[in-house]
Amino acid sequence: MSLRLSLAGLVTGLAIAAASPALAAEGAPKPPAQSWSFSGPFGKFDRAQLQRGFKVAKEVCANCHAMSLIRFRNLAEPGGPGFTPSQVAALAASYTNIKDGPNDSGEMFERPGRPADAFPAPFANEQAARAANGGAYPPPIDMLAKARTYERGFPKFVFDIFTQYQEQGPDYIVALLTGYRDPPAGVTLLPGQNYNNFMPGHLIAMPKPLSDGQVEYPKGPDGKSPVPETVEQYAKDVAAFMVWMAEPHLEARKRLGFQVMIFLALFAGLLYFTKKKIWARLPDHASAH
Amino acid sequence: MSGHSTYQPKTGIERWLDARLPIVRLMHDSAVSYPVPRNLNLLWTFGGILVFMLVAQIITGVILAMHYTPNATMAFNSVEHIMRDVNFGWLLRYLHSNGASMFFVAVYVHIFRGMYYGSYKAPREVLWILGVIIFLLMMATAFMGYVLPWGQMSFWGATVITNLFSALPVIGETIVTFLWGGYSVDNPTLNRFFSLHFLLPFMIAGVVVLHIWALHHVGQNNPTGVEVKDVKKDTVPFTPYATIKDLFGMVCFMLVFAWFVFYQPNFMGHADNYIPANPASTPAHIVPEWYFLPFYAILRAIPDKLGGVLAMGGAIVILAFLPWIDTSKVKSMTYRPIARQFFWMFVLVCIGLGYLGAMPADEPYVTISRILTVLYFGFFLALALIGIFERPAPLPTSIADSVLGGSGARLGHATASEPQAKG
Amino acid sequence: MAHATDTTGTEPTRRDFLMLTTGAFGAVGAAALLVPLVGQLAPDAQVVAAGAPIELDLTPIAEGQAIKLFWRGKLIFVRNRTKKEIDEAKAVDVATLRDPQTDEQRTKAGHERYLVVYGNCTHLGCVPLGNAAGEPKGEFDGWFCPCHGSHYDSSGRIRKGPAPLNLPVPPYAFTADTKIKIG
């Protein structure tokens, strides 16, 4: 009957609608999926990677971007980069211009940092940041790994429920940091604009922030860094660090999650059999289905 | 349901209390001896699941309110403070935010179940309308709760939804100003939304009590839609039969809930809400939470401001009139071959509208939204017409017959071996 | 009203075991839920971190003066005692005290000039007077609590009035001659 036809038509229409966002988002390619140590149900951060990522964030990103949701003490907390408390205290004290006050004479003063202090921001406020960056605001990067994403589209987003893919943020960040290109013919850049393959609309105010060899990584026993000091590697490391900044309890969450899932699965099984037992008490149960 | 109480106070204290406040009797009658149709399937566990979700949301919500700061300059960071510093704060907040989504998952299953099995038909009209009221209160609560983190989606969602009221003629602008407590969405708005977000769940709980009262007065519908004829043959006592089944359904639901909380906590949220609210910049696509998307799509499908608002409101309010729109005497769609197909098409239309609500307001989405909006309301028109000419399949003579294969009378049931069932 | 009801259990032991296990699981689950629900009441990481030890320079405190400061949200008095006050505190016969403690137990050897005590009366938590010049110091040259009339001596010990205990001494140590670290 025609009803079935209309149902079929509806489904087809939806499928077309679902397929078209890929066409609609012109030009901006999907960021390639990276492999991350923290993905999946048993994911854990790679401590060495977080420490390298912190170094990149501290030496490069923090010159323009705030990450003030992070406190120095977080760097020594479990599930994080795994710095020791004394390393953290020394790091905090190396920032000598932490604003505090007022003191007894009513004046604000500067003092060395303590582990409880927030990571100092490079600019006092958004206006100062804009003024120093040609009108563009370098957003805080502490939450960016959760605040940036890209459209997965149907049906991928349904599969993501089961594959637990949720690393759109870091994948996008890696793609962006490695996505600087010369503008294609026909695109003229205004002053303060840069061309990036993965930026929506391709025009980005942030100049290419990373270059090979820019950040010195800790040396292994052979006197060489165990990982290459390349833009690619920097981008991955800093993106991993940004995931930790955005979700510092990720490891605890996944660990507790596994325990809860096992418990609930066993409990559900027990309840199922208990339910069968109880319903079997009905005298006419044998013939009931 | 009908019938007198079977509660028998055993001790002196119980008798003393029963004579003064028969609360134990009330509990016994409504959660122990209450007769439940014996053929309920697992879809009927969603009522219990919804009570569980309401309690879970209230508990986690009250706790979050202990740590949250309802101030436009501090709200965003106070949520991050919960996520980072408060002991188990990340767990409580993810439970609450995903709990809202799971609450709606459960309520949509519950609503569609009621529609499929005709649970809105006489004598359950008031029960059904109370359900629609709960649904509306849930939407208001969820909307205001989503504003509280004061991220970009919070702010712009609040702006867009409150501006809907400006579509009302004459008084619209005044209403919006009063909603805001200012000339734009700002700190006063956040403060009042926090207060109302705290209040509304308790109003929901109140209406839930009425909903359950109405349910226990008329008795539960069941998959056959045939009313209970013989309490002995057709029903089982709520405890232990329904209790254990509800528990099983609840734990299965909790498995799904936990999957999202622990493994995909931001799947149902929106990335933009992790950016602090910025009145100077609107996100590229403003999208409400997924559970509002079908209604949002209807809103956008109408090319007129007031018309869109009315269509969206109508899409919800029309549910309340379902008992009178549907003209068929047969409750369960199991026995309604034509209505059943329309029902499944309606489900697809709702899913389709949900998808379109998340898409940008461009072609081809706008045209498809319009078609689906017509189909959405068309379903209700169809229900009114189908009932006139549809020839339903033969109904079982009783619930017991449907369970026992048509010869329910052959077994000696009701041996009355259970103490609380005597009387 | 009788329903389609039970037959008596045919396998009592196995059924009981299953019921017991299920019940135990439910109980364990409910108990586990309490951990986060109650645990969140404990001081959060920010509060704990803010309670780290603090350093204090004592040089600005003139003899006979006391200052107030806060550590972990608790009021602390630091008093630079006069010779007379020290002598009075040492002369007391400890056996006569309500809460017997010697002055030596309440100060650091070699730094008897400085007395560091929590600044809330041990009766019901009011702040005793006696820090600023001109405030009543009570009958024993220490502090006087205006709420219910407790008198503390120049070692912060309870001498008269309803309070049961001496003003407690917070954990602290001298890091230099005139520098202390509280906590």
UniProtKB/TrEMBL annotation, chain B:
Annotated InterPro entries: Cyt_b/b6_C, Cyt_b/b6_C_sf, Cyt_b/b6_N, Cytb/b6-like_sf, Cytochrome_b, Cytochrome_b_C_euk/bac, Cytochrome_b_N_euk/bac, Di-haem_cyt_TM
Major subcellular location class: membrane
Location(s), subcellular: Membrane
Free-text cofactor note: Binds 2 heme groups non-covalently.
Membrane topology, from the record: Multi-pass membrane protein
Pfam families on file: Cytochrom_B_C (PF00032), Cytochrome_B (PF00033)
Cofactor: heme b
Subunit record text: The main subunits of complex b-c1 are: cytochrome b, cytochrome c1 and the Rieske protein.
Full protein name: Cytochrome b
Phylogenetic placement of the source organism: Bacteria, Pseudomonadati, Pseudomonadota, Alphaproteobacteria, Hyphomicrobiales
TrEMBL record, chain C:
The reaction(s) this protein catalyses: a quinol + 2 Fe(III)-[cytochrome c](out) = a quinone + 2 Fe(II)-[cytochrome c](out) + 2 H(+)(out)
Enzyme class, UniProt record, top EC level: translocase
Cofactor(s) this protein requires: [2Fe-2S] cluster
Location (main, coarse): membrane
Xref: Gene3D superfamilies: Rieske [2Fe-2S] iron-sulphur domain, Single helix bin
Job description of the protein: Component of the ubiquinol-cytochrome c reductase complex (complex III or cytochrome b-c1 complex), which is a respiratory chain that generates an electrochemical potential coupled to ATP synthesis.
Subunit record text: The main subunits of complex b-c1 are: cytochrome b, cytochrome c1 and the Rieske protein.
PANTHER family referenced in this protein's UniProt entry, alphabetically: CYTOCHROME B-C1 COMPLEX SUBUNIT RIESKE, MITOCHONDRIAL
Protein name: Ubiquinol-cytochrome c reductase iron-sulfur subunit
Naturally occurring in which organism (per UniProt): Bosea vestrisii
